[in-house]
Amino acid sequence: MSDKDIQKSYEQSAERMRGDNKTFAADLTNEDYNDPNLHQDIHQKISVNYDNIEKSPSMEKVHQWQREHIKKDDQTKEGYPLNVIIDPAMREMYQVVHHAGMTNVFDRFSQQQPTQCKFCIEGLSCQLCANGPCRISKKAPRGVCGVDAHTMVARNFMYRHVTIGTSANIFHCHQAARTLKAAGQHPESGLKIRDPEKLKKYADMAGLDANQPVEKLAVAFADWVMNDIHAPFHVESKAVEAFAPTQRKELWRKLGLFPGGGYSEVAYAQTRCMTNFTSDPVEFLLNSVRLGIANEYQGLFLLNIIQEILMGTQEITMKQQNMGLLKENMINIVTNGHMPLLAHVAIDMASTDEWQQKAKAAGADGIQILGHVCEGQQLINYEGTHLQKGYGGQEGEWLSQEYLLATGVVDLFMFDYNCTVPTMPIFAKRFGTKLLSTHPVIKLQGTDTLDFLPEKMKEQAAKALDMAIEAFKQRKSENRPTYIPPHVSDCMVGFSTESVKKALGGSFQPLIEQIAKGNIRGIATIVGCTTARYGQGGSNIFKITKGLIENNILVLSGGCTSSVMEYTGLTHPKAADECGEGLKAVCKQLGIPPVLTYGACVDIGKMTHTAKELADALHVDTNKLPLVIGAPEYLEQKAVADACTAVALGWLVHVAPVPSITGSDVVVKTLTETTETLGLGKVVVEMDAEKTVQIYVDHIEKKRKELGLH
Ligand code: XCC
């Protein structure tokens, strides 16, 4: 067959499939692609004006405006997106990017309306086999294979959300364990074991000999973790056995939910999703809960422990957040993602006189590394990173990354998985930023990628710093215009099971007493992402959290929600004044804010740990606690896996926007009612902030009653 014949067969297929003899993408232009090589003339074409924007007022006034703004009902389509963007820096930079005509997340959300498909929104579309894609309607109540609406929705839920989210968290844990092993075997790697006591404690719980030399113990514990992750699904997980609450384990065994090795669990679950395999919808949902358990104990929980061993446990302190921390004459490195493993070695190095001198030799005042999204929320919390000279503070949430590059002063943007958007190469090219992926799991078009080699982290970190210095020199030599929005929030950070306990004088008893007295009615963990949706963009998180603290509910946050809490002032001790009387008094007495940031969305592992210790102190199972979980602006698959973790642990979990389950009443009823009757938790979906707060309050009061508290 000649090339011409092959071409012809493609054209004919395209014609058959969509009635046109070329691929659809042939109608798009170079501007519609993210490959930076297609944007040669981007500097001439896109003119950026930093003056033609409405500047945000001082932070104090911004806080006032935010509070008045969310009382009004105007976070919908009219006035979008400036009616949902409540971060003062992002408000400014959105205007810059929008006026320049560059693609950006909020404008893309608008472009996607109203084409977003209602079948997909409800979970009623399937693209698994070649008979499809199938969409369920009254006229066509089954897919071609015969699948009904309930199975389709349940299978989509597990396959598209829970398996991916679970494997991503387990993958993260796996990389952390590799790093811990390298720290034990290769001291020349720049890795340190900053918390050997924690290593001993958890190695001992794992049944290892904790009295061996620390380096050897690190290797043994890392191997133990990796072996458990890689075990078969039909062999019970040792990590779940070692770290999960006793009563929960009994329940999970009874319900057939006790997981085996994490990766194998994901493979098993995905196998069940193949066309014409499992078709019982409830099976998919229970399997999702089982994945939620692996997600926690072979993912979040262990990766948190390992990262604290490497970076040092949290310490409560005041730090700063937002774009105003960028400095025009500094070499600015922003590190993005969720695994600050290379980043923490880079911070160590950037903090040395040697590297600060190199920066000065390049004409800069110095070199600083700032964190962004969840990676940043971890760096701001760990003692081993946030006390360092080369650490510059926290930038923002995932929605702001394109706008961040548009400041023109980010010299290097390095990232691991996830939450680096695909358009970054275009922004990097337009604004002179160097991009560097630090793990091959994430490759962007036209962008350098490092192999993930923990043994070589020192060399790799040096490469990153050198790249940043070169980019800075280039920026200066071209004399490029820049603009840094001057906004900075002061925030109290560093909360974790240990640091909270320490602040309370060594035990959770004082907190339990406040809960028992009713000054604190209960605890809400408000976690996860922010979305670009109408009514969201940070606004929904802020509204709900305000409502909770006014009702004397203490809030723990993690993920991009923490950035929202930071730029709205809720992580400042002054926010105590906005609480109900009981919580206000407790916060004032302890000098803490009513929102305690635990860090990243992956730090949910620490929150569940705190909850477990509270349950232990009260001698009750975890599902008895006056505790609720919420992801008011969930975005991606890990959040859904985390919701399944919460259900496994017996908690009420609220998610918004509504996940794609509303196409099936069996699925909705199972997740929102039946699971609770089994001793598990349940899911709540509600888009209205005030109603959400009421649901939380009612649930907490119900749990208090069951505990005999008034
Ligand atoms: Fe991404 Fe974590 Fe979500 Fe933020 S919270 S949008 S996952 S960066 Ni993790």
From TrEMBL:
Q: Give yes or no: UniProt keyword tRNA-binding.
A: no
Output this protein's name. anaerobic carbon-monoxide dehydrogenase
Instruction: Give the reaction(s) catalysed.
Output: CO + 2 oxidized [2Fe-2S]-[ferredoxin] + H2O = 2 reduced [2Fe-2S]-[ferredoxin] + CO2 + 2 H(+)
Q: Which processes are annotated in GO (biological process)?
A: generation of precursor metabolites and energy; response to hydrogen peroxide
CDD domains in UniProt: CODH (cd01915)
**EC category:** oxidoreductase
Provide the GO MF annotations for this entry: 4 iron, 4 sulfur cluster binding; anaerobic carbon-monoxide dehydrogenase activity; hydroxylamine reductase activity; nickel cation binding; peroxidase activity
Gene, per the UniProt record: cooS1
Q: Where is this region: Disordered?
A: 1-20
The cofactors required by this protein are: [4Fe-4S] cluster
What InterPro entries would the database entry show? CO_DH_a-bundle (IPR016101), CODH (IPR010047), HCP/CODH (IPR004137), Prismane-like_a/b-sand (IPR016099), Prismane-like_sf (IPR011254)
Keywords, sorted A to Z: 4Fe-4S, Iron, Iron-sulfur, Metal-binding, Nickel, Oxidoreductase
